[in-house]
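Encode chain A's predicted structure.
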Amino acid sequence: MTFKTIQFFETEAEEAQRLGQAPVGSSSHGLSLLPVTYEHPDKYHLVELPWAKIHPCSGATGGLSHQCDGSHRLVVLPLRYHKGSPNTDLPQRHDGSWDCRIIASDHPSYPVSGYDICCSESELRRGVVVTV
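Encoded structure for chain A:
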């Protein structure tokens, strides 16, 4: 007897392929090139975003009036999850987003206690869990 596997969600490779279809230079395309380091993001886990890898700072800050040395560190605390839009072909497994509180940052546009940001689940999955 031969069994055929039923696939309910996209695989990690399919997720990377979907993200890679975004224009070169975009956050999504940058995420497609990074490995998954945090399989299942959850609330109340401190996560250092792969900010320097997907948002390289070239020194030209576009009027943000800060000197950029090529990297910034951004640590967030995911608080609330939002489902992504349904796909008719194959349900996308990690297409949701999280409302996150900025816990640590050296980027002047994203100060601690400034405001919350929204991060894609794909970005959190490529972040690093910070232990205190």
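The chain has a mean pLDDT of 79.
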